[in-house]
Amino acid sequence: MLDEMSRPLIRGRPEGGASRRLEASMSDPGTPLVGILGTGDFSRSLARRLVASGYQVVVGSRTPKRSVALFPEEAEVTSQMEAASQADLVFVAVFPEHHSTLVELKPALAGKTLVDVSNGLRINLDGPSNAERLADLFPESFVVKGFNTISAWSLQMGPRDGSRQIYLCSDSSKAKSSVMQLCRRLGFIPVDMGLLSSSLDLENLPLYLFPSWRLPILCTLCLFIFFYLYNFLRDVLQPFVTTGKSAFYKMPIETVNVTLPSVALVMISLVYLPGLCAAFLQLRWGTKYNRFPNWLGPVAQQEEAVWAVQLPVCGSTRHLQSVPSHEEVCPLQTAQHGF
Ligand SMILES: NC(=O)c1ccc[n+]([C@@H]2O[C@H](COP(=O)([O-])OP(=O)(O)OC[C@H]3O[C@@H](n4cnc5c(N)ncnc54)[C@H](OP(=O)(O)O)[C@@H]3O)[C@@H](O)[C@H]2O)c1
Question: Could you say which DSSP state residue 187 is in?
Fold first, then answer.
């Protein structure tokens, strides 16, 4: 009991935590040792996931003493050079602008697998990709592009939510298959995307998600303005001009309330339009083996984004319908003054 009481409530790190060498790595040489360069959000989530999946982890930092408290006890936090020397497979969890600061690790990383997890800030169509630049910086290492489409959050939570696939590409099939194996052990599904030249597509992938929503959002906005103006003219301005009855109180809620369902209905009908066009064309041609016109593909591809954009519209419609109208709140005032 005395022993229990003397134990601190919060587990501290042993003395000299930063340079502490993994005891497990000594005792269990069969457990793979994975290195991570950088101690940011991504590195911390990855380290937790790797430790939870039975890997030994060595993290390389410019300031290991300051970063050690951020990592699980099972992970060793040390200098970049020591981490690069110890591990055979090293994740580069450093922003691409800072890749060049790692060049002094070149001899330590020679012949090893480097996993580039970096993303770009804007779509890069011309190349070279971050991974290709990293491969140029470290010609004696085997660069694998991957893990960039998965967030630090999903990584830490594990493959419980929808993000299970990890896209990988590399010029070295051996390096790629070792990273694929690691993905499986972490509980993710590796997807082989081929050679390192595909890394540009992988880096652009996270940036393409929302641009496909642009057109549906624009259409929704235009339709909203159109229907709102129509309802304003019909329910507010026209009664005011013809009978002098003020109905301007309807503008913030009631007019919006009748506008949103119209917008949602038109947009949802638009979702079915490409399918109807395709069915009409097939009936007209009398065959399903003709190629559809080129314009039909991009229109049909917007379907998912249209649904996604309409969800909040439909949701707010339901919410607004439950807001009591002015007549319900002030029946007497409405009866007496007509507003
Ligand atoms: N966060 C995410 O959800 C996520 C998802 C996918 C991909 N990524 C990619 O993962 C990489 C790291 O992202 P992050 O969110 O972990 O970034 P972060 O929190 O800013 O961490 C970056 C780390 O890089 C290290 N670093 C090494 N050399 C550096 C230098 N010269 N200047 C500044 N920092 C340097 C720093 O660690 P030390 O100070 O200890 O050396 C720093 O903690 C990025 O390439 C990002 O695109 C991130």
Answer: T
Strands 113-116 and 56-61: unpaired
What's the domain range around 43?
2-209
96 and 59 co-located in one domain: yes
Task: Judge if 200 and 227 occupy the same domain.
Answer: no
- 41 CA to middle of ligand 1, Å? 7
Residue having the nearest C-alpha atom to atom 40 of ligand 1: 61
Alpha helices in 196-302 (DSSP H): 199-208, 214-232, 238-243, 254-285, 296-301
Residue owning the nearest CA to atom 37 of ligand 1: 38
| Residues 94-150: tens digit of each pLDDT | 999 999 999 999 999 999 999 999 998 888 888 899 999 999 999 999 999 999 999
- DSSP letters, 11-66, are PPPPTTGGGPPPHHHHH-TTS-EEEEE--SHHHHHHHHHHHHTT-EEEEEESSHHH
Both 64 and 155 in one domain: the answer is yes
Whether residues 190 and 231 share a domain: the answer is no
Same domain for 157 and 49? yes
Spatial CB neighbours of 181, under 8 Å, sequence gap ≥ 6: none
